[in-house]
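Obj: model holo form, ligand = protoporphyrin IX containing FE.
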Amino acid sequence: METLEILRWLHILAMVYWLGGEWGVFQTSYKVVNPALSYDERMRHMDTAYRIDIMARTGIISLLPLGLHMGYIWGVQPLGGGWLIGMWIVYAAWFALTWAAFFNRGKPISDTLYRIEDWTRYLLIPTLIIVGLTSLLGMGPLAGGDGEKWYAAKVLTFGLALIIGVILRLVMHEWQTQFRVLADGPNPAIEARLAKSIAVGRGVAYFYWILIAGTGFLGAVKPF
Ligand code: HEM
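Output (holo structure tokens):
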């Protein structure tokens, strides 16, 4: 039981950083895209956004292995033993990639690292959505019995939340390229693109919070 309790505690911490971190990035983004502020000030706000965002990203990638490990203890996820060890090794590599991209932000190598990170999402999102759906339909691989479906539902909503995460990641990637151009002086075309992409980002952010909070609800209440 002790392992489960510690994993649950870490799982809650990861959620706090994700949900709270997104709010921080959301607020800071207003300053980043504000053309009334000086270039230097906007760059400072952008740096703050990245420093907050790394904690949200760490939360995102930590929730999954913690959740899969707890799922095995709960008996709703079949892969234990060596699979769990393998999963934590993959997680360590994923963690290193996420932080390497952060530490190298603004350098040319960061584009490659961010692109690899994006690919982890492109592979994970369909996998999570398919596994969640087939399990909810009783076809496995996760438990689909009465009182067990909350787990598969969490995997599904987590997969859906990651889609929004990718959209927000693409918005932040664009900042990098657009601010390289803005460094040369005011540019109305770039300002217009920034305003457009941030409007998309803000629009989807509301669904993001609902999905993250909803996934937390499924874990805390286990309603079905
Ligand atoms: C948006 C992402 C997620 C959020 C915000 C979230 C949040 C939470 C919260 C708040 C709890 C309740 C803890 C408690 O009762 O004290 C919980 C429990 C749980 N979550 Fe998640 N979770 C997320 C993703 C996942 C994923 C992807 C999985 C599985 C792969 C997972 C598996 C679990 C399990 C097994 C529990 C039950 C822990 C227990 O009651 O012992 N979670 N989650």
